[in-house]
Automatic annotation (TrEMBL):
This is UDP-N-acetylhexosamine pyrophosphorylase-like protein 1. One of its GO terms (molecular function) is UDP-N-acetylglucosamine diphosphorylase activity. Keywords: Nucleotidyltransferase, Transferase. GO terms for biological process: UDP-N-acetylglucosamine biosynthetic process. It comes from Sinocyclocheilus anshuiensis. The keyword rRNA-binding does not apply. InterPro entries: Nucleotide-diphossugar_trans, UDP-sugar_pyrophosphorylase, UDPGP_fam. Belongs to the UDPGP type 1 family. Gene3D superfamilies: 2.10.10.100, Spore Coat Polysaccharide Biosynthesis Protein SpsA, Chain A (3.90.550.10).
Length: 506
């Protein structure tokens, strides 16, 4: 443990002596917690961090629009597309993906370090239950997706493959996530194939360059953004772990998208087939101000311009046919080869841009009173996971269908979009479509037929409630043999038991 003198010297070097201003009032326990926190801060890095934060914050207000003038859309010929590709091509990519998976070369990596502030829950977002008939949480849906994809590869190639699941957490989410997985017996996955690690936390800084104290003995810390991934990979020797397991390809995704296709064989196969070292799923932006980043090129290099950093005028620009010029919306589903990750982590990590967020950060004032600021008072610095695209030698974008792949959970119910209700509806609408396409007929509680509806409005539940366990079907596959010409009473939950019953009644 760091001594008081050493902590004091460290903070003096970094110009942050105020962190110890309440020292004489702290209990033994409180002071050791503070020393522990200080011991994780390196004086030179801290000095640089505070300087960079103030500088970035001053640029933040004056630099808006600097990149916009240099943005170009991704040329259409560089985008693979589910919508524009025929069945045969999609099958070829899917087969390639399953082949790679069957050879234990593919892993998934979940970005789950965020605090879920917008959703307003005190626990990790992945533990959220959006109110499906099964009551499953996002983590469970994802875990079952992994199992199903493994099973599909096993069946096709007669193997017993594994898709390891790396989960990047933060100080906020590691403990509860670990406990949740343990209590749920890892949802049937082998614990040694679920690798949790922690991203770093960095101090929030005031406009005066001083780090903010959120308690007398606690520095206000926040995770270093989802681009903290690259440092965390090094800190936790994850690339070595991938090497040991013989993994070549990584599907990185964000925890909040209820429709995420884990280790999507079509996406993996597409990227492998194109010889890409880095790839991103995109979809057509729904409207100019939709809060998604756009994949584009800046000075010829691939990049995502985040929704918070694009000028509204640029987001509104339209092409000759009236379509949005910058329409390739980022859904935070990325493909990386291990080689690319290694190169980024070793060579380029320090060049990643620091993005600035000016936030209201609760703090203790000079008298030690907790203050909840009414206006933004703190600078939080974050790196973004997609900022490595510029270092790619072969970048590809892959356009997917919104109704099949994207419905994020960002806000609490009551907000106009991206809520538990919209996430639940998107999943139920997808499963309803699959069941109809497989030839199922829905009945209501009184056994009266519910007329099928092929186009659905977003703000209503589908006419019949149908939830299909990922363990039964993950992409809508294999449903015909279970559901064709079957009467399905809404709410209908197709889990493994129900699937067995249906097979018996065929
Ligand atoms: C840094 C980062 O990855 N931002 C992503 C991410 O946004 P958040 O608002 O940070 O959840 O997910 C969006 C899709 O849900 C994507 O459009 C955006 O670019």
């Amino acid at each position: 443990m760091l001594s008081f003198e050493a902590a004091k010297a460290r903070l003096e070097t970094a110009g942050q002596s105020h962190v110890l201003q309440f020292w004489s009032e702290l209990s033994a326990e409180e002071s050791s917690a503070l020393l522990e926190e200080i011991s994780l801060l390196k004086p030179e890095e801290l000095l640089e961090h505070c300087r960079a934060a103030v500088e970035a914050a001053s640029r933040h207000s004056s630099a808006d629009g600097r990149l916009d003038a240099r943005m170009e859309p991704v040329p259409p010929e560089f985008i693979g597309s589910v919508r524009k590709s025929d069945e045969e091509r999609l099958k070829m990519w899917g087969d390639e993906g399953l082949l790679q998976i069957s050879q234990d070369r593919v892993a998934v990596l979940l970005l789950a370090g965020g605090q879920g502030t917008r959703l307003g829950v005190p626990y990790p977002k992945g533990m959220y239950n959006v109110g499906l008939p099964s009551g499953k949480t996002l983590y469970q849906i994802q875990a079952e997706g992994i199992q199903k994809v493994q099973e599909l590869a096993n069946l096709k190639h007669g193997c017993r493959c594994t898709i390891p699941w790396y989960i990047m957490t933060s100080e906020f989410t590691l403990g509860p996530t670990e406990k949740f997985f343990r209590d749920s017996e890892y949802f049937g996955l082998c614990p040694s194939n679920v690798v949790m690690f922690e991203q770093r936390m960095i101090p929030a800084v005031g406009f005066d360059g001083k780090i903010i104290l959120e308690k007398k003995n606690k520095i206000a810390m926040a995770p270093d953004g989802n681009g903290g991934l690259y440092r965390a990979l090094v800190d936790n020797k994850i690339i070595e772990d991938m090497e040991r397991r013989g993994l070549e390809y990584l599907h990185v995704y964000c925890v909040d998208n209820i429709l995420v296709k884990m280790a999507d064989p079509v996406f993996i196969g597409f990227c492998v087939n194109k010889g890409a070292d880095c790839g991103a799923k995109v979809l057509d932006k729904a409207y100019p101000s939709e809060p998604v980043g756009v994949v584009c090129r800046v000075d010829g290099l691939y990049q995502v311009i985040e929704y918070s950093e694009i000028q509204p005028e640029t987001a509104e620009l339209r092409g000759p046919g009236g379509e949005l010029l910058f329409s390739a919306g980022n859904i935070c589903n990325h493909f990386f080869t291990r080689g690319f990750l290694k190169e980024v982590a070793e060579k380029f990590e320090s060049q990643l841009k620091q993005h600035v967020a000016i936030k209201k950060v609760p703090f203790v004032d000079g008298e030690g009173n907790l203050v909840k600021p009414t206006k933004p008072n703190g600078i939080k610095m974050e790196k973004f996971v997609f900022d490595v695209f510029q270092f790619s030698n072969k970048f590809v974008a892959f356009e997917v269908l919104r109704e099949e792949e994207f419905s994020p959970l960002k806000n609490a119910d009551g907000a106009p979009l991206d809520t538990p209700t919209t996430a639940r509806r998107s999943l139920l609408a997808q499963h309803y479509r699959w069941a109809l396409a497989a030839g199922g007929n829905f009945l209501d509680e009184q056994d009266k037929p519910i007329p099928p509806k092929h186009s659905m409005t977003k703000n209503k539940d589908p006419p019949a409630i149908c939830e299909i366990s990922p363990l039964v079907s993950y992409f809508g596959e294999g449903l015909e043999k279970l559901l064709k010409q079957k009467n399905l009473k809404s709410p209908f939950l197709l889990d493994e038991n129900e699937a067995k019953n249906l097979v018996q009644t065929t």
